[in-house]
Amino acid sequence: MSDSFIVGVIAVVAAMGGLLFGYDTGIISAALLQITHDFSLSVMGQQVVTSAIIAGALVGCLGSAPVSDRYGRRHTIMIAAAIFIVGTTGATVSGTIPSLTFSRFILGLAVGASSQIVPVYIAEIVPAARRGQLVVLFQMAVVVGITVSFITGYFLRDHSWRLMFALGAIPAILLLGGMTFLPNSPRWMTMRGDVPGARKVLRLVRSSDRLAELELDSILAARGNQAGWPEVFKPWLRPAVVAAVGVALLTQITGINAVLYYAPTIFASVGFGKGSAILASIPIGVAMILATIFGSWAVDAWGRRALMLRLLPFSALSLAVLAIVFMLGATQGANPWIAVGALVAYAIFNAGSLSVAVWLIGAEVFPLPVRSKGMSLVAGSHWAADLIVSLITLSLIEAIGAAGTFWLFAGVNLAAVAFIYKYVPETKGRSLEEIETSLREHRFNQE
Question: Which residues are listed as membrane-spanning (predicted)?
Answer without folding.
Answer: 5-23, 43-65, 77-97, 103-122, 134-155, 161-182, 240-263, 275-299, 311-331, 337-362, 383-400, 406-424
